[in-house]
Input
Amino acid sequence: MSDHIGFLQNWQDAVVFWSFVAITVFVTWRILASKPRE
Output
């Protein structure tokens, strides 16, 4: 069958999803870290 093709598509979707999550968390952390905590 074409199981490995579906797996490859799911893998690419997972990479894009987790990359987006990682970038969002990183940007949010940078914004919070750049703010001076008084």
In short: The chain has one domain: 1-37.
